[in-house]
Amino acid sequence: MKPEDVKVVKGPLVTASAEEVEALEAKLWITFPDGYIDYVTRLGEGYLSDFIRIHPPWRIDKEVDAWRRERAQYWFWDEGPPLLPKARAVECVCIGDTLNGDQLVFHPSRRDRLFVLPRQQCEVFEAGPDLLSAVDWMLRSGRLIAGARRKLQFEAFDSRLEEPDEDDDDDVFGDPVEASDRIKTSTDGLIGEARVWADRRRVHRRADRFFADYLNRGMTRGMTAVRQCEALVFEAETASGYHLGYMAIYKLIDGKTKKAVDSIAFHYSDDGFMGAGPLP
To answer: I need a surface site. Which of 35, 92, 213, 220 has the fewest CB within 10 A?
Structure first.
């Protein structure tokens, strides 16, 4: 893949300057992988092939510390070859992700090895020796999405217009504002923010692991769970205020008849509670 081969279908481009890249390298004591500066100065921030987002310097600078803390707290990739142990992963820099929640990272001491932390799998993938090779692998290897995406189309956007208030990094939605003031108040913006909240807490992976155990015992042995719908919900107000939670409705499928036999609600709370129960 080459940036010049990409067709821009939505602009204007939101590019970074070489000086911005170099300033962040100096601040973090890193050198970005080959291809990164070419990508962000030519294409900038946006969606590639409606799937990949390479993070510009301003987003990396804002999120790197929180991302490392999250990896220290939540680590799911212990299966497969030991390509990236957790001890090194918490020192990595996340330079991109996908709309499915897969994360593209590199370690400052080995910028010629880019890794993917997939959302739906529990092993680390090695994506390539430079950014453009890694992007090509993510689009065409078939490990992250079924089938290869060959159309290199780009839709620009500016994440700085969609960020929460600086004084409340944990509040996904931020304070109420006029619709004309913030993109996030649109329906698409709210859905996007909800996906970010869910992705950061790995709720799909938590649900998958919960049901892997739940469906391996008792009357549910041999069944499969298929997610039907999902939503972020406000939990009951407490002394400290409202809390966000996640809820999804799963249909239980009999392994022999392939028919739905029941529905069950999975719930995850931001305070760490996780469980499931029958629908009322």
So the answer is: 213
Statement: residue 132 has pLDDT above 90: yes
Residue with the larger pLDDT of the pair 120 and 85: 85
- Residue 224's DSSP bridge partners are 253
Where are any strands of DSSP class E within 32-170? Answer: 46-48, 52-54, 93-98, 103-107, 110-117, 125-128, 153-156
Across the chain, the runs of DSSP E, i.e. the strands, are 7-10, 46-48, 52-54, 93-98, 103-107, 110-117, 125-128, 153-156, 224-234, 244-253, 260-269, 274-278
175 contacts: CB under 8 Å, gap ≥ 6: 165, 168
Of residues 135 and 196, more confidently modeled: 135
Domain residues of the chain, as ranges? 3-161, 206-278
Dist CA 168 CA 175 (whole Å)? 9
pLDDT at 35 over 70: yes
Token pair 């400290």 is found at 240
Separation between Cα atoms, residue 195 and residue 208, nearest integer Å: 17
**CA distances in angstroms from 90 to 67, 135, 264, listed in the order given:** 8, 22, 35
Fold of 3-161: SMI1/KNR4-like (3.40.1580)
In this predicted structure, the answer to whether residue 170 has a pLDDT above a threshold of 70 is no
